[in-house]
Amino acid sequence: MSRVALVQMHIAFGDPDTNFRTVEENIRMICTSDKKVDVIVLPELWSTGYDLTRLNEIADNEGKTTVEFIGKLAKSFQVNIIAGSIPKATDSGVKNTMLVFNRNGELIKEYSKAHLFRLMNEEKYLIEGNSDGLFQLDGELCAGVICYDIRFPEWVRTHMLDDTKVLFVVAEWPKPRIDHWRALLISRAIENQCYVVACNRIGSDPNNEFGGHSIIVGPWGEIVAEADESETILYGDLDMSEVEKVRKTIPIFSDRRTELYRL
Ligand SMILES: O=C(O)CCC(=O)C(=O)O
């Protein structure tokens, strides 16, 4: 894996048909360009936005529609897709679920947001996930988390203990706290010596304005690429040997004193 493309899009509020069209257009555009992208990343809840009160109508039943739709695109363009997250309706409730597809169009991972964000009433409409977001993409161990999850360094660290090289983050992060977004993502990259590839949305809904600034941070904390607040595709190249180099220079994983830590 080396080249990533982040779809920093506007999300039509509670309108899956429009959002599916936007996503398909963007994926086709990326894959028919000469960019040779390996992984495409979409934002959090890209099919519906934060239309939480209507989730009973618009959540995807077991994610079936999305899995078929994105799986076909991944297969026909032979591209890996981190399909942001979608509201997935299950027997026990609706989850905010990330879907990861490989180049054969196979769904290789589902991760449901572990930390629900009370400031946006998530706990009233969604149920939390209870398992990790680890997966292999083109032979590299990667992790995926969703938005508010990045405020929990112990959760991100849990994903990093097996030589994980890339952390994918999908979000609908509001504009008033975009400085937190940047600082948290840069910190997660530095403290875990990994790439952080983070896709946010732009635009607004009836309750929030969203801040864009999708970003790719390198394992030394350097900004590889960063978007502004416009609708755009953010491209960046990842070099896994940089991760090895940084981890050799400052060996934080072997220097940890776990006997001192309280979790
Ligand atoms: O933590 C934050 O400030 C934003 C989190 C958020 O918007 C979310 O998890 O949906």
Protein described:
It comes from Evansella alkalicola. Belongs to the carbon-nitrogen hydrolase superfamily. NIT1/NIT2 family. The chain has about 260 residues and is of the alpha/beta class. It has a single domain, classed as Nitrilase/N-carbamoyl-D-aminoacid amidohydrolase (4-Layer Sandwich), CATH 3.60.110. Helix content is about 30%, strand content about 30%. The chain has eight helices and 15 strands. The strands form three sheets. Strands 1, 2, 3, 4, 5, 6 and 15 form a seven-stranded mixed β-sheet that branches. Helix 1 (about 15-30) links the parallel strand 1 (about 5-10) and strand 2. The longest helix is centred in the first third of the chain and has 17 residues, at about 15-30. The protein is globular and about 50 Å long. The mean pLDDT is about 95. Bound molecules: 2-oxoglutaric acid (AKG). 2-oxoglutaric acid binds near residues 120, 147, 151 and 173.
Brief rundown of the structure:
This protein is α/β, with parallel strands linked by helices and 263 residues long. The protein has eight helices and 15 strands.
**SS-derived structural category:** alpha/beta
State the helical fraction. 25-40%
Small-molecule components bound: 2-oxoglutaric acid
Provide the CATH superfamily: Carbon-nitrogen hydrolase
Family: Belongs to the carbon-nitrogen hydrolase superfamily. NIT1/NIT2 family.
Domain CN hydrolase: 2-240
Keywords: Hydrolase
Protein name: Carbon-nitrogen family hydrolase
What attributes characterize this protein structure?
7-stranded mixed sheet, hydrolase, C-N_Hydrolase_sf, alpha/beta, hydrolase activity, 263 residues, binds 2-oxoglutaric acid, 6-stranded mixed sheet, 8 helices, globular, Nitrilase/N-carbamoyl-D-aminoacid amidohydrolase
